[in-house]
Amino acid sequence: MQNEDSMQQILLRLNARAWGIAVGLLCGGALFIATIVLVIKGGPDVGQHLGLLSAYFPGYRVTVLGSFIGFVYAFVVGYALGRLVGSVYNRVAHTRTGA
Description:
Helix 2 runs antiparallel to helix 3. By secondary structure, the protein is mostly helical. The relative contact order is 0.23. The chain contains three helices and no strands.
């Protein structure tokens, strides 16, 4: 019985670092692709709404260079969110198993 409980606890645990990296890459990649698509699309007001992110991400602009800067910022924010989700999940799963 003890082995089953410890095995269940191990299986329920998430790797918070892996969640952080995965969510960071997802967020960073999404912002990078969105910025590049708008740059390629062009026009008089390129990325007017996406450009508002510069209020939160200093140095970010809807340009090719800005897509790389935005990737870094979005990766950091996504990493923090993913790490938080993984940690909270582990804490909740740990208390529910009674260990």
